[in-house]
Design goal:
Elements lengths: L7 E5 L4 H12 L3 E6 L2 H8 L5 E5 L5 H15 L4 E4 L14 H27 L7 E6 L16 H21 L4 E8 L8 H4 L2 H10 L8 H11 L11 E4 L7
Parallel strand pairs: 1-2, 1-4, 2-3, 4-5, 5-6, 6-7
The chain binds nicotinamide-adenine-dinucleotide (NAD).
Length: 253
């Protein structure tokens, strides 16, 4: 499929896991891509020799860094059709021992990062090509909707930060609709990425996840990427402010 031909896209956290799969998928469907990540070395390793990929080292939690990243995208591309806010971090820890520093760090990356990137991308999205729809896709989590406490890993700050991103998605969808920009979320369930390697290496957790998931397997980054590519395409031109769950049925079971 060539749904993203002649389009410019930016993906944050593009050097690993879900972000990498999203970046590969959009490029495979024809997009010219800005791959944004904190990790200089991983960016070079993953996208080093790709002409259709502009590598940008930036911290989504840092305002100046995000401004510089989108200024560079503006200079190189002139416009943007798709922004995918994927960069995120996960931390675990019980509520009573949670430090303010750790709470702030999780919110800075998972909630404030998408705000900053969306704000800086907005001007470029507005100057987009009138021939097709332009949109933002935020990677939230099933944990924005439910609390998976039985995994033995409390994480109220992660839950709260993804809940904030969910409502940011809806509020932004309303505010940007008049400019023809759609804003949606993809809520992954458990996906096999470097983010989850440690948890998956525990056989008990692994077996529990499979048993708990109606479709009976762990998710793949490609499952997330396929959903993002759809939401960012014209096939989704009447879809805004919504969440597409990519969780093998976890949240309905
Ligand atoms: P990952 O750790 O494999 O990749 C995250 C990437 O983001 C890394 O390349 C990292 O360098 C980059 N990054 C981290 N902080 C950044 C920052 N401040 N600025 C720029 N880049 C930064 O993780 P993943 O599993 O691919 O997760 C990607 C997204 O998917 C996250 O938002 C995560 O919350 C979400 N998610 C993952 C799962 C899962 O099971 N893996 C489930 C639900 C949601």
């Amino acid at each position: 499929s060539n749904r993203h031909e002649r389009r410019f896209a930016a993906v944050t956290g593009a050097a690993s896991g879900n972000g990498r799969a999203i970046a590969e998928k959009l490029v495979a469907e024809g997009a010219t891509l800005a791959a944004i990540d904190l990790d200089t070395e991983a960016l070079a390793r993953v996208f080093g020799d790709r002409a259709e990929v502009l590598r940008i080292v930036a911290d989504v939690a840092d305002e100046e860094s995000v401004k510089a990243a989108f200024a560079q995208i503006g200079a190189e591309f002139g416009r943007l059709d798709t922004l995918v806010n994927n960069a995120g971090i996960v931390k675990f820890g019980t509520f009573e021992n949670l430090s303010l520093a750790e709470w702030d760090q999780v919110f800075a990356v998972n909630s404030t990062g998408p705000f900053l990137a969306s704000r800086e991308a907005y001007r470029l999205l507005r100057t987009g090509d009138g021939d097709h729809t332009r949109s933002i896709v935020n990677i939230t989590s099933v944990e924005a909707h439910i609390v998976i406490s039985s995994s033995g890993h409390p994480q109220i700050h992660y839950n709260a930060s993804k809940g904030a991103l969910l409502q940011l998605t809806r509020a932004l969808a309303v505010e940007t609709a008049a400019s023809g920009i759609r804003v949606n979320a993809v809520a992954p369930g458990f996906i096999e990425t470097p983010f989850t390697t440690a948890a998956l290496s525990n056989q008990e957790v692994h077996d529990w996840l499979i048993e708990r998931t109606p479709l009976g397997r762990i998710g793949r980054p490609e499952d997330v990427a396929n959903a993002v590519a759809f939401l960012a395409s014209d096939e989704a031109s009447w879809i805004t402010g919504t969440t597409l769950f990519v969780d093998g049925g976890w949240t309905i079971y």
